[in-house]
Predict the 3D structure of the following.
Amino acid sequence: KAGVTQTPRYLIKTRGQQVTLSCSPISGHRSVSWYQQTPGQGLQFLFEYFSETQRNKGNFPGRFSGRQFSNSRSEMNVSTLELGDSALYLCASTRRAGGPGEQFFGPGTRLTVL
Amino acid sequence: GDSVTQMEGPVTLSEEAFLTINCTYTATGYPSLFWYVQYPGEGLQLLLKATKADDKGSNKGFEATYRKETTSFHLEKGSVQVSDSAVYFCALSGDQGAQKLVFGQGTRLTINP
């Protein structure tokens, strides 16, 4: 069974640009969550989607947004990039929305903002 | 809000040494607790979990017991190997209806042969 895939794996952008990251969950998983990992702030929850609906959102500015498609694939978008947005962005999928199910993580997208 | 405090690293041990990585949490209600491991260049992998008080999670020789009275979930292994070198994250899921993990800062573990 294929794991969670994220594309692209590496990305370099400049300040003010926008970026879209993609995540394909494990087949049959309907919940997708996004996390930002930085050396200073560690791992922080961005948002969770289930059945194309955002169920939870972390404490990030509105420049961070996401969506989920009917096939459970998800994208996140960051507009007006800032230097501080440089991070590893991790996507995780779970079969269902409720309960402490195991989250399966992808390898991440490394975003560098210059 | 919910939070996780992890023992700061880095931690360096010799092969076959005993490992303890401390983790304490603050949460309302009854969270589920997890240990994740991250190898270089990879995403996070679930190492073990416990969903209620006094549960012991175990996997690959690692163990952790959910202690509600001390709000702790310390990770232990009796004899570490070079291949255990990685970053370890303690995490909690505080809301039964949400797939939202709150992570500790991570502990980098290096095992020398």
